[in-house]
Amino acid sequence: MQIVANGLRIEVDDQGPVAGEPLLLVMGLGMQLTAWPQPLVDLLVARGFRVIRFDNRDAGLSQGFDEAGVPNLAWVGLKYGLHLPLRPIYRLADMAADTLGVMDTLGIARAHVCGASMGGMVAQHLAATHPQRVKSLVLMMTTTGARHLPQPGMRVRAALLSRPDGRRPEAVVAHLERLLAVIGSPAFPPEPERQRQRLQALVARAWRPAGTARQLLAVAADGDRSGWVGGIRVPTVVVHGEADPLIPVAAGRDLASRIAGAQTDFVPGMGHDLPEELLPRFADTIARNAARAAISS
Question: Cβ of 85: how many Cβ atoms within 10 Å?
Fold first, then answer.
C-alpha cells in the first residue's frame, strides 16, 4: 500500500498482528523493501511482531527526486576525499524523518527498529533524535562513517560503480549477480537459480539507479556520526559479518563500542547481505533485543 509520510508517497508493506509489537525494517542503499526476505518477515511475525517494511524515498515504488538530476559520483568521490563540502539533494536526517512519518501515518507511537547498511545509518539518526519513539535498535552491517575506519577495497568500489550492459532486465539482473558475488557472504553462497529469480522479481518491481546515486550522495554528505551516536540509549545490538568487504567488521566493532550497553553478533563468513541460512539467527537476535526493551521499560 502507498501512504503519505513526511509529505512523500511511501510504499509500505505491513504484515503480522495489528496488536503485535511494531517492528520497522529500514533497508540500505538503493534497495527495495523486498530486499528484506519474506522468510525473515515470516519468522518475525511468528514471534509476535507487526513487521513494517517500506521503500525509502528514491527507491522501489516510493516517491523519487528525478527532477533534481543525477549526481556525478566521480566528482562526489573526489570532493569527499578532499574533505570538501557536499550538497546532497536530501540528507539521511530527511530519510529518518520519512521513517518517523511512516510511524505517524500508521498510528505507531513507539517501535522496534532494525536498519541494514544505509538503513542502519538512518536508524542511528532516528534513535538519537527521537529516542522516545524507538523501543529497541538493531544495526546491521553499518557504520558511524568515521573516516579512520577501514574502507572498501578497489574491487568493491569498482563493482559498486559499475553499470549493467544495457537496460534490458536480463542485463540488469546479470549486473546485480556480479555485484552480489563481490560483496556477498563467502561462507553462505546463495543457490544461483533461486537468487536469479529473486533478482528478476526485484528488477521487474523497480530499477532506479539515479535514485541510488542520490542516496549515495546523502550517505557521503552525512559524514562522521561517531560524535553523537553515544547519545543513543535504547537497547541496541550490532550485527555484522566478519567477512563484509563493503563495510568491514571494524566499523561494526567501533559502532558497538560507542553505544552504552550495546550487544554484538559478529558472524563468521558473513558478507554484506542477508544469507538465507542466517535468517533464523537474525530473527532471534531481533526478538531477544526487543525483550531487553520490555525488561528495561
Answer: 8
Write the single-letter amino acid at 117. S
Residue 200 belongs to some domain of the structure: no
Could you read off the pLDDT of 85-142 as tens digits, one per residue?
999 999 999 999 999 999 999 999 999 999 999 999 999 999 999 999 999 999 999 9
Angle at 227 between CA 212 and CA 99, to 5 degrees: 40
For the chain, the average pLDDT equals 96
Q: How far is CA 15 from the centre of its chain?
A: 19
Contact 68, 89 (CB under 8 A): yes
What CATH number did the domain enclosing 287 receive?
3.40.50.1820
pLDDT for the residue 296:
66
229: in domain: yes
| 78 pLDDT above the threshold of 90 | no
pLDDT digits (tens, 9 = 90+) for 112-123: 999 999 999 999
197 found inside a domain? no
Could you give the number of structural domains in the chain?
Answer: 1
User: For residue 288, what are the domain limits?
Assistant: 2-151+209-296
What would the grid cell of residue 15 be? 504484515
Q: Is residue 168 part of a domain?
A: no
Choose between 295 and 72: higher pLDDT: 72
**CB-based burial label for 193 (10 Å; 0-12, 13-18, 19+):** exposed
